From TrEMBL:
CDD domains: SDR_c. Transmembrane segments: none annotated. Gene3D superfamilies: NAD(P)-binding Rossmann-like Domain. It comes from candidate division WOR-1 bacterium RIFOXYC2_FULL_46_14. Pfam families: adh_short_C2. Keywords: Oxidoreductase. The keyword Transmembrane does not apply. This is Short-chain dehydrogenase.
Length: 253
């Protein structure tokens, strides 16, 4: 059984809702200390109220698209405030439904700022020896099966997640000498707020087609939280540079 200690500190972005919320609560349930990051203070406060051990659940209000260049220093500041960290979970992100005909460079840059550039900047800060614990740590990116499955209307989104999955492999090689492992998870459609956003932007028949591809049914946030905790634990000590598809079979057809 996976257990974390109070001294194992995990930074979770997008921690106020969806997958980030589920991951933050699961780590806390397993004994770890969590720093949940999001833009909405009220939602973060509710996460603390839901926690089994609120004394080990902290939050930071932060817009990760602002001053991306300074994010590594911000992470260093968190380590000085809370202590050295064991894990970084990158769950913050946005979905953009934009056809090729409607492609706009500025909108694409905005998406990449939150889905890619801010994540890499946070990794730069986390991999500083002053931040990560001496025996190493783990980074888990929340990607998407959109990075490996073609679907119209999500060119920019798919590209941003594909960039993450490529970066995982290169980063894993670069930071292995510091004992840090890097992996990504590619969820299918999970029953979160983002599922509702997807449903609002595509025809009902197309949504049904997507849902039917999930031969094990839609995923629950806990399905992604469970594998995330495994990858952060010592049980996964020999796993790095991998992109794990967790999609209820959606990518099989």
């Amino acid at each position: 059984m996976i257990k974390f200690s109070e001294n194992e500190i995990f930074l979770v972005t997008g921690g106020s809702s969806g997958l980030g919320k589920a991951i933050a609560l699961k780590i806390n349930e397993l004994g770890g200390t969590v720093i949940a990051v999001a833009r909405n203070k009220e939602k973060l406060e509710k996460i603390k109220d839901l926690s089994n051990t609120p004394q080990k659940m902290f939050f930071e209000v932060k817009d990760l698209t602002e001053d991306i260049e300074n994010l590594p220093n911000w992470v260093l500041g968190l380590a000085q405030k809370y202590g050295k960290m064991r894990g970084l979970i990158l769950s913050a992100g946005i979905m953009q439904m934009v056809s090729l005909r409607a492609f706009d460079v500025e909108r694409a840059k905005q998406l990449f700022d939150i889905n890619y550039f801010s994540d890499i900047a946070l990794c730069k800060g986390f991999c500083n020896k002053k931040v990560v614990v001496n025996e190493g740590g783990g980074i888990v990116f929340i990607s998407s099966i959109s990075s490996i499955r073609g679907r119209s209307g999500v060119i920019n989104y798919s590209a941003s997640k594909g960039a993450i999955d490529s970066a995982v492999k290169a980063m894993a090689v670069e930071v292995a000498r510091n004992g840090i492992r890097v992996n990504s998870i590619l969820p299918g459609l999970v029953d979160t707020e983002m599922k509702g956003e997807v449903g609002d932007n595509i025809p009902p028949e197309r949504l049904n087609e997507i849902l039917n591809k999930h031969i094990l049914g839609l995923g629950k946030p806990e399905d992604i939280a469970n594998i995330t905790c495994f990858l952060l634990s010592n049980n996964a000590r020999w796993i790095t540079g991998q992109c794990f598809v967790v999609d209820g079979g959606a990518s099989l057809s």
